[in-house]
Structures are given as C-alpha cells and as structure tokens.
Amino acid sequence: MLLISCPSCGPRDETEFHYGGQAHVPYPENPAELTDREWAEYLFYRDNTKGAFAERWLHSTGCRQWFNMLRDTVTYDIQAVYPMGTPRPATAIPPAAEAGTASLAADSTTTGSAAPSIAATSTASSTTAPEGATK
Predict the structure, then answer these.
(1) Going by fewer Cβ within 10 Å, which terminus of the chain is more open, N or C?
(2) What is the pLDDT of residues 91-131, one digit of tens each?
(3) The pTM of the whole model exceeds 0.85
(4) Nearest CA to 75 among 58, 57, 91?
(5) CA-CA distance, 91 to 40, in Å (whole number)?
(6) Which of 83-99 are b and which e, b meaning 16 or more Cβ less than 10 Å from the residue's Cβ?
(7) Each residue of 2-17: b (16+ CB within 10 Å) or e?
(8) Span 24-39, mean pLDDT?
(9) With the C-alpha atoms ordered 9, 10, 13, 14, is the resulting torsion angle positive or negative?
C-alpha cells in the first residue's frame, strides 16, 4: 500500500485516492481542426514509461483536490507531489537507472517453477469445421 502525501491533508493511505492518468497532457488548441486520428491520439494514447512518470491523482475521500505526483513505475517510490499547473520537477533518479535493466533480485515473478510447457498442447489443425460452425 502506498502512503501518499496530499498537498492539502498530509500523508494518507492510497485507498483515499483515485488515479487520474498521465499528467501534463495539453488540451489541443483547436480541437475542431483535428482529424479523427489526431483526436483519438489525444484521447487514448499515453506514455507507458518505465521509471519516473508524472501522474494526476484525486484525493477523493479527503479534500477532493487534484494534484500531480512524480512516481517511479518500477519501484513505486514517490519522488515528488506538486500542485496542478506546476511544471514537472526534475527526476530524482539518474538517467542510467531509468534505462531499464532487469532486476536479478528474487521476487514473486522469479521464484517458483517454470512456466507450464506448451509442448503437450495439440497444434494439429482440423480440416473439417465442428458441427454448427460457419466459414
């Protein structure tokens, strides 16, 4: 569980907050002039950064105020909490660490048995469709 420090209320459990997506996504100057593709990119395309990422959060059960947070998406470390409309602060992680190297530490994704084998799965294709199927 994250302990998020609300700029207005102080530190609270993450259950009091709602994630609002990527921060600092500017609204288009002339949305009526955008093509369907450009409008879809504005609405749905977001960065999927590994490392420091600027996010919007709402303190939904507290002061109900929006704020931005700079959080590491790998370690969940909260690097900065800052008000809406404020520029993104510089990252606290050196760029070499953000480049993305695999962790060799044991965790839930690296322990236990290997993934199930797919060799036993039948790959033979049938030349006739099952009854009731359409082509």
Answers:
(1) C
(2) 655 444 444 444 444 444 444 444 444 444 444 444 555 56
(3) no
(4) 91
(5) 29
(6) eeeeeeeebebeeeeee
(7) eebebbeeeebeeebb
(8) 94
(9) positive
